[in-house]
Amino acid sequence: MSQALSFPLPSAVGSIDQYIQAVNRIPLLTEREEVDLATRLRDEGDVEAARKLVMSHLRLVVAIARGYLGYGLPHADLIQEGNIGLMKAVKRFDPTRGVRLVSFAMHWIKAEIHEYILKNWRLVKIATTKAQRKLFFNLRGLKQDTGALNRDQVQSIALQLGVKPEEVVEMETRLSGRDIQLEGGSDDDDERFAPIAYLPDPHAEPSEVLEQAQLSRLQDEGLSEALASLDDRSRNIVKRRWLAEGDSATLHELAAEYGVSAERIRQIEAKAMQKMRGLLVAA
Asked: Regarding the domain delimited by 206-282, which CATH topology (the fold level of the hierarchy) does it fall under?
């Protein structure tokens, strides 16, 4: 049986280069050893067997993660996500299928790395559908240079990937773009030209301002005319109940002032408000 765990754990090293050197020193398992360990894990839930299977394939994760360095994400993070995929593969590996773990695990490792890249490559997720994800991870390799695609190249890539030409163009635009900070930094010049400075204020748009001013004027004029149509008592009740600058008068206070019941004040108020409402609607 291989002594894969006789080496120091890679997690104990201090740098990514030391980690890579450490995992590359871990011996590979023979097919017989791999089957025995996988069988113990499946039948007995042997955690030590699972650890040996994972440890012996850490170099595979490093090799796969190296192929995704062009996306500008930390190599260590790519390896970490790939290791998660490797552990998922080990948990699901069936030694009776006649397939080596290295072949089975590649799908799970790449799937975790892909998901990590899509979530972290941009602030805004750029690939959500299956076709978009396929484009995202294949477009770079199919482009012949770093310049923009011409029409023939777009058609060729679309044909190879089985997608629409306009989808190729859209993904190339997303890939060539970059995140822009909405607000400027601490530098005054940066803040002056930050995107947030160009966002329109809907309340400051000239036509909106004029419309609101005209509406306010019409409402004020209409309210004055509606109040003028009331008798003195009704007008006073409405003003003190609804238009007072300080605390509004209560029904009982007005009732005491006019020598009537609070219910009577409520009826006068309701009738006055109904009349004013009709005048304002007509206006």
From this structure: Arc Repressor Mutant, subunit A (1.10.10)
